[in-house]
Specification:
Layout (H helix, E strand, L loop, with lengths): L1 H12 L6 E5 L1 H5 L3 E9 L2 E13 L3 E15 L7 E17 L7 E20 L2 E13 L3 E5 L6 E5 L4 E12 L1
Antiparallel strand pairs: 1-2, 1-10, 2-3, 3-4, 4-5, 5-6, 6-7, 7-10, 8-9
Length: 177
């Protein structure tokens, strides 16, 4: 089934009437993070929806992240040419924090929130294939101190999640079809 889908996407990508876009973040995939966007093209605009899922593992903790976003891009030279672009997005984020106990039970906690990001970059376009490189400022409206507890509730601590705002780089590969 995956081969059929891939062949269909490749054949459709040779069409000059591209109206849709599929893009992935290959560097993030190699790190175990899934970042996929599917969008609709119109003139110089791209409206897309996407999913970003991954885990950040520390020495004694792990944070699992799931983000769904709605993104609007504006391309100064159009979507079928190499171009500078601006981006803005809103998102919903769900976090699960797991602190591994050394001689005690693991502690877990959850937090959800909303956020936004905006930025820009450059897209290199070759017929139906493209590559993007850019940067965004991100900010999520989540509580940076999350309460984590053991399954039976006997142990409660506070964990810090203050790394969900700031600047991030973006590198994507994609196809128009």
């Amino acid at each position: 089934m995956k081969k059929i889908l891939l062949i269909t996407l490749l054949l459709l990508s040779f069409s000059s009437f591209a109206r849709f876009q599929l893009k992935v973040a290959p560097v993030q995939f190699t790190l175990g993070v899934r970042n996929i966007d599917f969008g609709y093209l119109h003139d110089n605009f791209l409206l897309s929806a996407g999913v970003w899922e991954g885990s950040f593992v520390g020495i004694f903790n792990e944070t699992k992240v799931s983000e769904q976003h709605l993104r609007l891009d504006y391309f100064f030279s159009g979507l079928k040419n190499s171009s500078w672009y601006l981006v803005g997005a809103i998102s919903k984020i769900d976090l699960e924090f797991i602190e591994e106990g050394f001689l005690t039970e693991d502690l877990t906690g959850e937090e959800s929130g909303t956020g936004y990001y905006f930025g820009g970059g450059y897209r290199w376009q070759w017929k139906s294939f493209f590559m993007e490189f850019g940067a965004q400022y991100i900010d999520y409206d989540i509580d940076t101190n999350i309460e984590v507890s053991s399954k039976d509730g006997s142990e409660v601590e506070t964990a810090n999640l203050d790394y969900f705002r700031g600047i991030r780089a973006e590198y994507n590969l994609g196809w128009l079809f």
